[in-house]
Amino acid sequence: MDGQRTSAALLERTSTDVVQLLKRFENIVALAPNQGKDRNATAVDVYHMEVETAALIRVAEDLLSLTRFLKEEWLFGKLDTIRHRDNIDRAVDSDTWAVGEMMQQLIKSKDKLR
What we know:
The chain is elongated. 87% of the residues lie in helices and 0% in strands. It is mostly helical. The chain contains three helices and no strands.
């Protein structure tokens, strides 16, 4: 699997997990009020809360396994972050030089106008 497909898949997995985490938490909070409910409705809500809590824990564990996977990939050198960072640094450096040259030209042109 190439780097872009892997990173896209990892980003998608992260987004899906975060959405699921929020959804499960919202479901638990929505079930919390039990005013005016009879014992059977409360029992059903308690069971539903247990199911949502178990699902929330599974999603949190999936996020933890994802972070562990990323740490292992980074530690064992399978993530090419250094080379990617070097390319970004080179681009920023060239942009910085270009801006510096433009500033020097602007200063020279202002000096000529005086």
